[in-house]
């Protein structure tokens, strides 16, 4: 399987690209390529009461999306990293299957 490769114009995607190819360093690679969601801390109290729940839900959605992205990148990276070994195993099985059997 070919390696996923893209440009890294601003130095923010190399960790992500490495992770999508290997399944390792996912959290660090992902963090390098996104703008971290900061806590509202005191700022939440400046939001009108009718909007606080919407803001909290929006934050929760971003957190869930980040988690899903991390898991997906890790899984895809592990699949890509294991692809050569899997391909060799399948080829060996195909060769074994083509050998004549003794009866």
Descriptive account of the structure:
The chain has 103 residues and is mainly α. The protein has one domain (14-98). Helices cover 65% and strands 0% of the residues. It has helices spanning 14-22, 26-33, 49-98. Helix 1 packs antiparallel against helix 2 and helix 1 (14-22) crosses helix 3 (49-98). The longest helix has 50 residues, at 49-98. The radius of gyration is 22 Å and the shape is elongated.
**Beta strand count:** 0
The residue-averaged pLDDT reads 89
Query: What fraction of the residues are assigned to beta strands by DSSP?
Result: under 5%
Q: Based on CA inertia axes, which overall geometry fits?
A: elongated
Structural class: mainly alpha
Order of helices and strands: HHH
Cα separation of the termini: 38 Å
Number of domains: 1
Q: Which residues form runs of ≥5 with pLDDT under 50?
A: none
Main sheet properties: none
* H/I helix tally: 3
Fraction of residues in helix? 55-70%
**What radius of gyration results from the CA coordinates?**
22 Å
């Amino acid at each position: 399987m070919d390696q996923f490769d893209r440009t890294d114009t601003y130095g923010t995607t190399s960790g992500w690209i490495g992770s999508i190819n290997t399944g390792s360093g996912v959290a660090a690679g992902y963090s390098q390529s996104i703008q971290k969601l900061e806590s509202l801390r005191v700022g939440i109290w400046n939001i009108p009461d009718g909007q606080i729940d919407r803001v909290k839900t929006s934050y929760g959605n971003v957190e869930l999306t980040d988690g899903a992205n991390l898991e997906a990148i890790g899984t895809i990276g592990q699949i890509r990293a294991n692809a050569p070994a899997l391909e060799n195993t399948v080829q060996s099985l195909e060769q074994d299957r083509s050998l004549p059997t003794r009866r």
